[in-house]
């Protein structure tokens, strides 16, 4: 837009994506959601760097199980400091605790440090690194507290964001490819091919999805590794989630296939695959992208539900569902409320997706400006 | 009238075809589970100290009819289910699935339909009001609730309510029956006990369906209310509720009736998970147990098939209802 001197000229020469972006930017709720979304994606991608401890059992703090969140502070009874600190905890047993081991806070300060060395990881899966964003001089810091095994809930939450985004991405991509093939073929050929494929789409849509997910997920043997499980769960989500998108693509192709440019391509001797892939699909790329963004949170939520009931991902892979597996226990409900801290974060993430999707849908609709 | 009968017949045929396809999918899924019923039964016997040979497994397979070809078994399963209401035998419990599901499926269906009624009882009037008061504070706060309905899945809402209730009232709100009455036979007292506890599962099952339906009703009415026929009616002196009910509401009725089946689907989705969170003892819990723990494919297949059959039946009924109340739909078919 900036290259053209005349702004009115720019409007008519702008490409489809430029127009969509201008309309999207005008919507404040969508822009705020986009910033949130980018923040969450960065959190997920750089989770190992941002989290002070290994989220699996390897990084557990055996002396601080079911520990409360430790909030960094600047002031305590002894005065104030420029560096944030937490109070050191100690294991203690004596007369007053009936000779049982308890963990209690002392008055001793432990200061936070920037970029300390910790457990080894690979940044973005390639660069080996040991530095983490923050840590403490000695002992441990648990911003969100710890679970029953002493695993750091803050680190687990960050990794869970990454895993949930990854599951959603793989699932959406798989369902996208299937929807593209089924919807494209049904719309382009019409007739009995369309009827059969439509009947198939309708049937798949009639069966309640989550019970169907559960039935599929139940086949995965417990003995398989967590990584394999992750791949399979994403595949199952993708394999069952293509119905709505396929129907949309079919409708678009059906409407466009009689257009003059398609006839021109046909007369020039182009094959069916070439016409669908090169001429028809690009004509509504924006709608496809919008639908993908909108279907994303549903994938994430389906994975959460599956993992929550124990049929999805399992330890040591973290996802929101895995994190919530034990929270229905009464002792957790009564005493360890920090187990619930990941929930608001995930609700925010899904909300961000919903708002960005809504904003994109309005922006991609060329008639939205008139309203 | 003959045309209407033909319309019903066509719809019925379509519903039967969908059910057959669904049953084929479900049956294939059941078949894909590693190991069959005979092997599992024999393995169980082995843990009881009996010595089992390969021949015993084969004999058991023949007894159960597992040696017959795949399609033949599907036909016998489907005809058993639809013609004789015989859901087969549970792998694990060695009793009729029908006996195992028994009143649990009725409890589940009752909960789901109550949630469905709640959804429409809230969504239709509130959505219409929201569309009429567009862009006011009422409308904006409703939109926020709708977005939350999308972002907070039902089981997270259930967890949140349970957490608050445990912290503030010391009551977890779980289960459908109190401890004394759980195993008691059905009586007026037990029914009252269940109803006094059923409000939470009903509310939670209906939560996201309500949120989505609210948005749909609001969008439908606000699309219609600025059209010329409404302006014309207003010019003739109609206003307020009378105007709404006579014109835009009747137009919006079709899509709303059409979506009832989808909403039931949405509610069924949450059945097993909400059952897990609230420790219910209904068909959802049974399904979860069959899939997650005992691998009881007969039981799981029967429950999924029953749930889907309910949706298909409801879709069939709403299609006919739509043709009865909407002259435009009738025109298309006659």
Q: What does this protein look like?
A:
- Chain A has 371 residues and is an alpha+beta fold.
- Chain A is built from 15 helices and six strands.
- In chain A, helix 5 (153-189) runs antiparallel to helix 6, helix 7 runs antiparallel to helix 8 (226-240) and helix 12 (285-308) runs antiparallel to helix 15 (342-364).
- The model of chain A has no long low-confidence stretch (mean pLDDT 79).
- Chain B is built from 15 helices and no strands.
- The mean pLDDT of chain B is 79.
- Classes of the chains: A alpha+beta (371), B mainly alpha (334).
- Chains A and B meet through helix 6, helix 7, helix 12, helix 14 and helix 15 of A and helix 1, helix 6, helix 7, helix 12 and helix 13 of B.
Count of individual beta strands of chain B:
0
Oligomer designation = heterodimer
How do the SSEs of chain B run, as a string of H and E?
Answer: HHHHHHHHHHHHHHH
Structural class of chain A: alpha+beta
Q: Count of helices of chain A?
A: 15
Poorly predicted sequence stretches spanning 5 or more consecutive residues of chain A: none
Trace the largest sheet of chain A across and list its strands: 1-2-3-6
Distance between the termini of chain A: 24 Å
Largest sheet of chain B: none
Structural class of chain B: mainly alpha
Helix percent of chain B reads over 70%
Strand content bin of chain B = under 5%
**Ends apart, CA distance between termini of chain B:** 10 Å
Strand content of chain A: 5-15%
Described by strand count, sense and barrel closure, the largest sheet of chain A is: 4 strands, antiparallel
The count of β-strands of chain A is: 6
| Helix-strand sequence of chain A | HHHHEEEEEEHHHHHHHHHHH
The whole-number mean of residue pLDDT values of chain B reads: 79
Tell me the overall shape of chain A: elongated
Helix content of chain A: 40-55%
Q: Secondary-structure map with pairings?
A:
The complex is a heterodimer of chains A (371) and B (334).
Chain A: H1 7-13, H2 16-25, H3 28-45, H4 47-50, E1 73-76, E2 79-92, E3 102-114, E4 117-123, E5 127-131, E6 134-136, H5 153-189, H6 191-206, H7 209-217, H8 226-240, H9 243-256, H10 260-267, H11 272-280, H12 285-308, H13 320-323, H14 330-335, H15 342-364
Helix pairs in contact in A: 2-15, 3-5, 3-15, 5-6, 5-8, 5-9, 5-12, 6-9, 7-8, 10-11, 12-15
Chain B: H1 2-32, H2 37-47, H3 54-64, H4 70-84, H5 97-132, H6 137-151, H7 154-169, H8 188-224, H9 228-235, H10 240-246, H11 248-258, H12 260-278, H13 283-294, H14 297-325, H15 327-333
Helix pairs in contact in B: 1-14, 2-3, 5-8, 5-12, 5-14, 6-8, 7-8, 7-12, 8-11, 8-12, 12-13, 12-14, 13-14, 14-15
């Amino acid at each position: 837009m900036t290259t053209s001197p005349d702004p009115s000229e720019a409007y008519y020469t702008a490409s489809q994506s430029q127009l969509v972006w201008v309309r999207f930017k005008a919507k404040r709720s969508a822009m705020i959601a986009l910033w949130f979304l980018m923040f969450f994606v960065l959190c997920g991608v750089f989770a190992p760097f941002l989290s002070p401890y290994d989220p699996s059992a390897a990084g557990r703090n055996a002396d601080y199980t079911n520990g409360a969140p430790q909030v960094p502070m600047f002031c305590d009874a002894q005065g104030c400091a420029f560096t944030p600190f937490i109070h050191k905890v100690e294991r203690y047993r004596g007369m007053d605790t009936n000779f049982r081991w308890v963990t209690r806070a002392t008055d001793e300060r432990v200061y936070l440090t920037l970029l300390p060395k910790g457990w080894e990881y690979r940044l973005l899966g390639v660069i080996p690194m040991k530095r983490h964003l923050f840590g403490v001089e000695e002992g441990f810091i648990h911003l969100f507290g710890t679970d029953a095994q002493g695993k750091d809930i803050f680190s687990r939450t960050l990794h869970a964001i990454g895993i949930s985004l990854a599951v959603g991405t793989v699932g959406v991509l798989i369902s996208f490819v299937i929807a593209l093939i089924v919807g494209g073929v049904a719309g382009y050929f019409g007739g009995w091919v369309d009827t059969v494929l439509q009947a198939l789409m309708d049937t798949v849509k009639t069966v309640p999805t989550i019970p169907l997910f559960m039935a599929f997920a139940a086949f995965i043997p417990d003995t398989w590794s967590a990584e394999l499980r992750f791949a399979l769960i994403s595949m199952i989500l993708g394999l069952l989630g293509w119905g709505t998108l396929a129907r949309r693509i079919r409708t678009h192709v059906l409407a466009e296939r009689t257009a003059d440019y398609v006839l021109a391509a046909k007369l020039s001797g182009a094959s069916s695959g070439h016409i669908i892939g090169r001429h028809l699909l690009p004509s509504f790329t924006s709608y496809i992208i919008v639908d993908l963004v909108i279907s994303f949170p549903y994938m994430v939520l389906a994975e959460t539900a599956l993992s929550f009931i124990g049929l999805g991902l399992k330890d040591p892979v973290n996802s929101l569902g895995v994190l919530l597996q034990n929270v229905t226990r009464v002792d957790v409900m009564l005493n360890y409320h920090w187990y619930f801290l990941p929930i608001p974060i995930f609700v925010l993430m899904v909300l961000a997706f919903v708002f960005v999707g809504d904003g994109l849908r309005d922006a991609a609709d060329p008639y939205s400006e008139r309203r | 009238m003959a045309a209407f009968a033909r319309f019903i017949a066509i719809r019925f045929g379509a519903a039967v075809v969908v059910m057959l396809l669904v049953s084929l999918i479900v049956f294939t899924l059941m078949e894909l589970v590693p190991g069959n019923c005979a092997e599992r039964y024999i393995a169980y016997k082995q843990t009881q100290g009996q010595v089992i040979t390969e021949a015993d497994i084969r004999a058991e397979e023949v007894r159960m009819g597992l040696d017959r070809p795949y399609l033949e078994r599907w036909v016998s399963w489907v005809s058993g289910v639809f013609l004789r209401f015989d859901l087969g035998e549970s792998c694990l419990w060695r009793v009729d699935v029908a006996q195992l599901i028994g009143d649990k499926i009725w409890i589940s269906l009752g909960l789901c339909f109550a949630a469905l009624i709640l959804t429409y009882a809230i969504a239709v009037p509130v959505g219409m009001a929201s569309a009429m008061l567009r862009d006011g504070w009422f409308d904006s706060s409703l939109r926020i609730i709708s977005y939350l309905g999308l972002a907070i899945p039902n089981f997270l809402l259930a967890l949140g309510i349970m957490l608050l209730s445990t912290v503030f009232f010391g009551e977890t709100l779980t289960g459908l029956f109190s401890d004394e009455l759980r195993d008691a036979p059905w009586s007026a007292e037990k029914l009252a006990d269940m109803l006094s506890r059923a409000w939470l599962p009903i509310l939670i099952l209906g939560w996201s369906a309500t949120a989505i339906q609210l948005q749909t009703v609001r969008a439908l009415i606000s699309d219609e209310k600025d059209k010329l026929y409404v302006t014309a009616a207003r010019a003739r002196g109609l206003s307020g509720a009378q105007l709404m009910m006579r014109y835009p509401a009747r137009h919006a009725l079709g899509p709303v009736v059409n979506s009832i089946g989808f909403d039931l689907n949405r509610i069924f989705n949450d059945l097993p998970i909400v059952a897990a969170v609230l420790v219910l003892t209904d068909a959802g819990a049974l399904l979860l147990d069959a899939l997650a723990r005992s691998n009881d494919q007969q039981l799981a297949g029967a429950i999924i098939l029953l749930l889907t059959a309910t949706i298909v039946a409801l879709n069939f009924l709403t299609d006919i209802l739509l043709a009865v109340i909407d002259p435009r739909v009738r025109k298309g078919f006659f």
